[in-house]
Amino acid sequence: MNRLLIIFIVLVVGCSQRDDRSESATDHPAAIERVAEKGPVQLVVRVSPIEPRLSDLVEMDVVVTAPPDVEIKPPTFGDAVGDFLVRGYNERLPDSKSKAKSENADNMRVFHYQLEPVASGTHLIRSVAIEFIDNRESSEAKGKTAFIESEPIEIKITTEQGDQTPDLANLEPMVAPVAIEQPLRFWWIGVIATGIALAVLWMVRRRRQQRDHVVPVRQQSPAEIAQAALTQLLSENLPAAGLFKEFYVRLTGVVRCYVEGTTGLKAPEQTTEEFLREMRSKEIFSAERSARLTEFLEAADMVKYAGQQPGAEQIGFSILRAREFVER
Asked: What is the mean pLDDT of residues 236-246?
């Protein structure tokens, strides 16, 4: 009976010990820890995962435990922790397991960091230093600032491929092209959109052509100009009002402008004598036409400069000569 009682006690104790070891071994199975103690303060630096990839964010917890009268100050890392960049920081509440295992759970602080590796290979997290002030009455260093530091941690950063070297021969073959079925309504939408675009382009081009197209103004010939001026002069009937000089000035002006337009002679700017001399020297008109023009201009000068009062027959003859000259 005594032997059975001893065996039972050994089994119970052994099971409890295995349970304790199992719990302590599985608290943080995928993390690297560094523990340091100084006076009343305990520092735990925990990093996970153990072998992160280059694309992972590394989680780091800095857990500081101390009696209630010890003031703990958070670590100051800046933008980087060792070879890592700091991408996130916050202070967390300690979990229930950590509180249950600590005698000073009321003064436990957990500082959580998210770190980003910048390259693959072995990275170093240097010593983490925590500043604290021991305000306990029984402490010999009461009110003085002290530091506690952890040991450095090396972390191996792997790539997606790990140790394998990429090989193009391992690539899968290209998949054959697959026709994409397009609903009929999309086809009609494309046709309508194309038609609208073409219509807009046609309208723009037509407006541009209309804007750029300039209809040339037809230039009247010297004969047409002279005939229109003669018609206008006769419609005013100046001789009936006794304006003989003005009538002959304008009548000879019509003929002179016609001569200038057809021959290039500066007839309107010359005297009758100068014009007739240049006309004969260059033989611009035939002898008969030159004689008729001479007779017409000299008769008009008698009215314009000598004050002659022409009769109806002479006026009609002058009009006939002018019209005959410009209509040939």
From this structure: 89
